[in-house]
Protein 1
Amino acid sequence: MSSSTDWPLWEVFVRSRRGLSHTHAGSLHAPDAEMALRNARDLYTRRSEGVSIWVVPSTEITASSPDEKDSFFEPAGDKPYRHPTFYEIPDGVKHL
Amino acid sequence: MAAVTADQTTQSTSGTAKAAGRAAGTAPDAADAARLAVFEAAVAADDRIEPRDWMPEAYRATLVRQMAQHAHSEIIGMQPEANWITRAPSLRRKAILMAKVQDEAGHGLYLYSAAETLGTSREELLDKLHAGRQRYSSIFNYPTLTWADVGAIGWLVDGAAITNQVPLCRCSYGPYARAMVRICKEESFHQRQGYELLLALSRGTEAQHAMAQDAVDRWWWPSLMMFGPPDDASSHSEQSMAWKIKRHSNDELRQRFVDICVPQAEALGLTLPDPDLRWNEERGQHDFGAIDWTEFQEVLKGNGPCNEQRITQRRRAHEEGAWVRDAAAAYAAKHTTPSTRTAQPAQHVEETA
């Protein structure tokens, strides 16, 4: 009989209420998707924290590398003109 | 950018066909009535409807139509402005304009993705755009004749779009509302860069000032038309308001936009081309002149100055990009290991969202 640590790891995403996106809550081990969902309910929504849960096998997530963080996100760094505060608007002009 | 007027399209979508399929074989009206009651209670309570919730087919079809039109407007809207990238007067202005056009592409992608949560596909939506079965905002059928048009679009067209879109952040359909929050946040720079551009021209030489004024003269009325037909002639408005897809009527938003623009125009040192525009003390709002709805209908019918050019360019871009999509798919197929290929049956988007 396998221990629970042999079970695959699942990432859990919880929607706290309608209108908001699912956000990452944490992870857990479970033998299959159905069990992962039930366990996620018991583990992450014991106080009614959610109205909807997604579980995703951790191995299915492709993540950017922390080592490459600087070069990966660097292209946006020198483009301050993407922000509204870059532009000078005369005092007193509203709704811009 | 992109004007959403729920009113500009009339075509229904694939939702109807699906409705028929789904309805066949399901329990009779009692179950539907119960589900409808749950849906209506959620809308009444200002709750959001999420992709896996049951929703009336007409609600789904209306959303697909509106979100598709909105997405199409974003990507068609890249054309009139991209027209000026190579001729921007400085590197600063060029970088800004590229960033803006890039944002419009991004906004289109947010909206296509949100529309896909309703069970339609990107391919289907693009096909309908290319076939002329779904529309985009009529504003993009006007040409950008001078550099000042880039400023006028940012100030007026994006300004009208923002007036339209801010209430959509509270739209009853969750994925659409969330996409709009992102878009509105990014839209702010679009409007400000346009205003700043016009201000620079307005305060420049006599010729530059005249160029700015000319652009505002040409874009003012089409911008007012972006809010859609007057309320009494707007076919979809009432139902969309009841479903809380729309929160304010076309005329209400148009009035709000006019009231915002008048002092902004003054600060620019430019005039708005409407002799009837004046403050109405009694109403606490501006009165303004009659809009030429014949022109609006003509542009909608395809007879605007650039309708043909825009859709031809869109089709060409799609066709000329085919090899890139094919190459990416071929590369992915070659580098996908057999195990991942079998482990991931394509799930329908509705099942996961």
Note: The interface with chain A takes residues 42, 47-50, 52, 92, 95-96, 99, 103, 174, 177-178, 186, 188-189, 191-193, 195-196, 199, 260, 263-264, 267, 344, 352 of chain B (CB under 8 Å).
Protein 2
Amino acid sequence: MLSKLTTSARVAVRHGSAASAIRTHKIPGQRLPLAKYGGRHTVTALPGDGIGPEMIEHIRKIFSFCHVPVNFEEVQVSSSLVGVNDLEAALLAIERNGVAIKGNIETKHDDPSFKSRNVELRSRLDLYANILHCVTIPTVPSRHKDIDVVLIRENTEGEYSGLEHETVPGIVESIKIVTREKIERIARMAFEYATLNGRKKITAVHKANIQKLGDGLFLKVIRDMSEEYKNIKFESMIVDNASMQLVSRPQQFDVMVMPNLYGNIISNIACGLVGGPGLVSGMNIGSKYAVFETGTRNTGTSLAGKDLANPTAFIRASIDMLRYLDCHYHANLISDALWKTLVEQRVHTRDLGGQHSASDVVNCTLQNVEKIMEAER
Amino acid sequence: MLSRTWSSIARVGPQALAGSNVVSARQYSITAPRPLEIAQKLKVTIIPGDGVGPELIYCVQDIVKQTGIPLEFEEVFLSEVHYTRSSSIENAVESIGRNNHVALKGAIEESAVLHTEGELQGLNMRLRRSLDLFANLVHIKTIDGIKTRHGKKLDFVIVREQTEGEYSSLEHQLVPGVIECLKISTKPKCERIAKYAFDYATKTGRKKVTAVHKANIMKLGDGLFLRTCEEVAKQYPKIQFESMIIDNTCMQLVSKPEQFDVMVMPNLYGNIIDNLAAGLVGGAGVVPGQSVGRDFVIFEPGSRHSFQEAMGRSIANPTAMILCAANMLNHLHLDDWGNALRKSVNDVIEEGKVRTRDLGGYATTIQFADAVIDKFRI
């Protein structure tokens, strides 16, 4: 009970008002927009597979209604197309515009020659940090209350290096690579993020008791860096324990920093805790480029075309993008309108136990935008 | 209507009704997907300028008022000839920043009198510098109903760098009778103008970018520009890139202008080509343009002449300014309004009943604007 109170007090103090609980945090780093003309940004939109295309349509609708100064350059990438030309085109488009919003691209599991296009995109653009902000939304049914945790995941190396081979039949080697340089920059990102947003604690998740060298290096680098940030408490936790703690007492976490694979698992747990894949957005930040997508990367193919999929995660991804582009007014506007829709008006899609369609959520958010704008005048 | 309301109440889920705020759930009803309208009027800055500028701008304001286009205006007066009444550059910048980063502007006459000692930059240059409007974009498009010499349909865009090169305002007299004018070219500025041209081509679905230069003579200065364009072109595999020397470009423009799509060039060449090309499709009165920076955009006629002789006579052709306003609406994502305005102007000209003097008629600026208002349908 005590911990619950303190957490909610912490949330309230940090954010000022309840509606801003889901507002995207400030993103560290200096950014120079690559394709901004006359005050309007150009952003690459990759609709992807499944529900992606309809979600991009929702975002377009919201953006034009709110006069968001963003134009989209749409590039189609999907796993169904043969050849790599479309992926090259998408990469060039992101390199030109600097920023992309993306639906997930389906990966074929069975074909070893087919590299995941999502992974390819991340490694080619060097999007080293995957950042998720998992926060409970009061009216959304979840087992725990007052979760407010930021998950920062290394996105380019570790188990995802794509180095696997069969030495002799029946023996497969997968190589996990960690480098000091890459750990340093993810750690720097985590500490800067925490400092910028007034966070108090960073938890490093690892398995250094077994992988003494690989994860040991990860732990050592972050621990060393924590010396520079006196105001932020540092602790470490082994990944299996972290999973257990997360489902039993998630309120204890503030900012978590993780290597690639653990990050993947932990972020799915955290997303599940706060209400499922339809709610949480994820940012992929590199030194030059950034790609915004949903937190758990599912295509939702079974829901496509039925107007059922929860658009919240995608709307929040677009808000993350606006924050990154320094369009703070519009980011807060849409975020608060969305909060109103979800919390005050309880317009919930089926995944949250409601009866509403995706376009209901979008239309309702637009009405709230209008109300907020009117109130401001 | 009634059934709509009922179904929406029914659709508020059982979970919401069971909750504490049943009343608010009932009060709230979801409407049918609404048309894409806008939440409020948008404000823009207007800078009337000198000569016929004010007449043209007021003509646009009149059209906006009569047709219900959702725009509001804030006027900033800038002038070099009437310098005592002129507002400051800082004021103008602040106003544009406040009003959606957008302005509609008439031409500002360059005064031959130097008000500030040693100031070689004109008001236009200073405004451009302080807003960092590095690109000037002029859209050359034939309008049905305007007779041209070549009789061909033209539709191309001229992108001009307008912050460096010959316009650096660095001129000095070394010894009496010997003057040096410095033309400055820098890699970052070449890069951003080239990128702008290609980004514009991508956005508007154009196929080809032509870089105009004189690198055969100015091997370093224009050479840098040309090489940078070539480099940037590699990022845009879907757009064809070619280069052309400025003198040849002029000849090609008057003999085979239909070959061009997007042209990108340094400052002075751009100035000349802008005016040459405007002449191809009907003159200064019909060609819209815009000056673009990273954060700001100013919409102004493509060839920037104040037309002092016609001041107060209501004979100037407002087409360019009205098309600028239409482009501004498109920029603000008010596409329906922008397209409707553009169509009504084209309709008036195509019909040919109301023509200003430059197009061989006797109509006044105001009569032309009235004709546009009559034709406006949305």
Note: The CA atoms of residues 131 and 227 of chain A lie 23 Å apart.
Protein 3
Amino acid sequence: MSERIGFYICHCGINIAYRVRVKEVAEYVATLPNVTVARDYLFMCSDPGQELIEKDIREHKLTRVVVASCSPRMHEKTFRGACQRAGLNPYRAFHMVCVREHVSWVTEDGDEATKKAKLLVGAGIMRVVHQSELTPATFPVCTNTLVVGGGIAGMQASLDIAKAGFKVYLVERQPTVGGHMLQYDKTFPTLDCAACIGTPKMVSVGQESNIELLSYSEVEDVSGFIGNFKVKVRQKSRYVEDNCTGCSECEKACPVEFPNEWDVGTKMRKAVYRPFPQAVPITYCIDKYDRAPCVQTCPAGTNVQGYIALVKLGRYQEAVKLIMERIPLPGTLGRICPAPCEKECRRAEVDSALAIRDLKRFAADQVDLSELPLPEIEDRPEKIAIIGSGPAGLSVAYYLRLKGYKVTIFEALDKLGGMLRVGIPDYRLPIDVLDREIDYLLKHGIEVRTGVRFGPGLSLADLREDGYSAVFLGIGAHDSIWMHIPGEDKTEGVIDAVGFLRVVNLGSRDLPGNRVIVIGGGNVAIDAARVVKRLGAEKVTVVYRRSEREMPAYPEEIEGAKEEGIEFSYLTAPASIQSQDGKVTGLECIRTELGRPDASGRQRPVPVEGSEFVIPCDAVIPAIGQKIDVTWIEEKSELELTSRNTFRVNPHTLQTNISDVFAAGDAVTGPATVIEAVAAGHKAVAAIHRFINGEDLDQYVEEQAAKEPPGSDWQEISKDVENAPRVVSEHLDPIQRVNSFDEVDRSFSEEAAKNEAARCVDCGGCCECKLCVSACEAKAINHGMEDKVKEIEVGSIIVATGFDPLDPTPMEQYGYGKYSNVFTNLEFERLSNATGPTSGKLLKRDPTDPLKFTDPPKRVAIIHCIGSRDQKYHEYCSRTCCMYALKYAHLLKDKCGHDTEVYNFYIDMRCFGKGYEEFYKRVQMEGVRMIRGKPSRVEEKDGTLIVKAEDTLSARIVEVPVDMVILCTAMEARPDANEVSRIFGITTGHDGFFQEEHPKLEPVSTPTSGVFLAGACQGPKDIPDTVAQAKGAAAEALALSASGRVEVPPIISWIDPDVCIGCQACIGLCAYSAIEFNELKGISQVNEAVCKGCGSCAGHCPSGAAKIRHFTDKQVFAEIDGLLAKAS
Amino acid sequence: MSEFEPTIVAFFCNWCTYTAADLAGTSRLSYPPNIKIIRVMCSGMVDPKYVVKAFLNGADGVLIGGCWPGDCHYINGNLKARRRVALVTEILKQFGIGEDRFWLRWIAASEGNMLQEIAKDMIEKLRELGPSPMKGRMVA
């Protein structure tokens, strides 16, 4: 059958006809092949226009129809309908050519426009004959609706839909619904209170059974299509369960404070909070970020931020308990920990890091451990042997005991403590501190057997025989490493540092010599030097082969040694020990210089030839390192050792090659810090616990290895944090020091400690001190809560994500952030609101304290259009500012007295709504002064703000002195509008707001069918307009749910089975996984329900098998042919 | 002889660039009539043979307009277009059609003014380059 084409060109009033000579185009088309009728008409989209097409189809037996008019995005559907009504398949029969948007409106010359129209139309005529019959698929519609955003738009839409009997999921990012409207005080022009009309909506949303409120949640992903969306909603953990009664006891207990976002920082809130008392849901919420860097850095994972917060409150006992969750010896570590946490402290970004270690010590010193109650321990039958009572052994013993195990410590010496006792001198760690802490640990029921050395007197077999289920080896590294230089052996006066410190720490006060040389640069060397000095040596010299910069000892120790008169000889290496009659007389040294870096990254000392010299002395203490005593193990045990003669263990479980033997501490790592030994202790405890319970340790290893590194999303440091120097503890006078073993560091006063603790910037938000847990009667607080991802199915989505007020800080001329009495509109709303910082009083801010408000202003300037109608910020008008500015003027007169001078600086007054103009009149009658002109500057002079502007009506420059300035800031799109638009498949306009499908006729629809817009996310609007649009969006969603079925355009892909070669390239290209490979037939096949019709497969298919319906090669080629035909 | 007027075939994605062209019209942002738009659902569906076909049929330039990366209505069709365009450009060069004649541009739905600018720029460029070398070699 030959084709019979009908062609229709629209005048569109004059919109097309004023440029395109439509009659000429119709006459031209009439000459083209297959064209049966060609007509022009004033309005093709009108009823008579469509009628014309339908009549022609019937009378002229048309097979195809081409309409040239506006964009097909506007009326393609209209004309397809006409074709369908006249009995043609619309996809086969109809093609639309755009001659308005793409021709008449953009072409200045009539001849050119007509010529272009003819070409486009010609191409359309050529294309249409290749179109084939397609039938849209229909799908059932899920009648649930997702509403995103719980402001007034979202609440209204949800309530309307719920009222009609359909289910709504309302997702709100904040912990409460309400949105901006609930932050306001009164609403213009009626002055009814926002809370009075807003809170009932909130309550209804909370109570309506058809609404499932997902507060503190965000939409993560949307898939599917109109009527059949699948949505993933992340429900962020509130850390407070739903049984919260909202009693606010947790809030009272919480030590951490932040500026309250709800009050735009005019008020503080706690880390556990609800934005405002009328919040819906009433459930509290705890603000957590990633764990603070100090917590992450501590090898033992101590909750540093937590105990610092408790010290701030003076809750020392709780602080010590919190420390002891991870560190069994708080006073000890509070003295000798290298405090890696302090290096990561973010307070250093403001001034200097917190004195974390000193605060730990301070807290520990305030608590009498003997008064600390003991926890109830549920005993277990298993026995565990701990060999060695250093920090590793004590940690493992204590934490295993807390788990209920029967623990026995075996110690070679007479007293417990290992290196803590025999390695660290008393002036750094007083022995009574250590004794008290060890006593407290033992009180938990740990058995102790001293004087038993592992090896000769106690073998693994003995322990197993005695019924121990596991053995932990924490034997430390108590042997010195020797230098292997001539004269070292068997010379009187050469004493190894570890041995020397051991005897002194155990009570000996024998002076090894008067002129003593200590060799080495580590803490042991400095300890030995300072101890010798205290024993009364006249001259103590530390000899070190590198420079001070490379010294591994703590800087404060080196400093302390220098203060005490200890000399340092850097770049000096020992060569031999000189002696007379078997007694040391001097140390021959050689100068060194620093060469290439070695494996440790430090520069290697290189001896300088011929630079030998002798330092006379009568004792030499080499302190160049320690090792573990392995003589017995090498001979008698099957324990595997590393090349460094330490125990070989699995790094995650600390299990040795013998399955029931675990090891940690210096015996595994070589000489290291106490905190590392404690950290390793925790690892060993976890592994031993699993081992005894028969759990798979390999799986545990995998889990540990797969653990993600901690994040660095920390609480932003407030701009208001003022510089405060780090508190420094008092030190004993150097002259006094060298005469005794009294502790050098004297700690600090309680006031100083609290001030220091208050410097913490609370990186992690909540500090997890758990005071809230004990305060909560309902037992609703759950710090272990995790985010949940809820998957829901909905048929339609309403996006009502609102706006943000512009931040006027960059506009320096208005002094916001610089002058304390320049407010933004939202801050002023909070001042005026009864739940705000001043309980509704309009007061000036105290210049010295941003959180304090003093007395009412007498003169106020309100500046309109801050960031609106301003090419540097937003070209658009924010539509609400004129009216709320008038409202503020009225409120100021009302609350601060009628003699208050109020100046409105405006560009144009836009009072367009119902009752708006009348309100403007009323406010003018109240004596508010209106000055037409946007101020150029706000300056402060003698405590008064001066607003400078041009009064454009009287053409003069005015300078108005005021007490308060209110900036009416623009409404702008949310900063994440682009990301949100991608999730929902919608677009943003050049103003950043979401783009509606059509500015007039589709104000709530978007390019993605089934996704609708409501409220200020689509553009600035006031409450009445927002509510109206929300109701519109609700109507769209309801229409979809009520009809129950939806038609999906049939423009989808299709793979020709006869052509497909099964290369599967299309499968990788398909973003929707809509193509599957049919193994049986060896070809790829499109799942039509999933395909969206993007055509990526068709554009790529190497064999040309993949095609997209309605955009086939023939159709597109015909269109190209038409466009490039010789113009007539 | 009158000034050379290039012809451009433009493949515009339905969601961004075609809408931008509609917006240019609604905003009455005029540009020369040389540019002829073919509506496609996504820039990612533009088959290389459409481009070749347009040049063979005598187009002086081909313009593909898509959504900005990340904004594709079909997740990432525009990125596939970008890859394909890079490849086709290489092939076209071997046939003497330089990359100045084959443009891929991201134009969002709200960027009517950008569409106008790009249309003007491309026509300007093609006027400089003169007629496509394919024109003389067309097989009837």
Note: The longest strand of chain A covers residues 583-597.
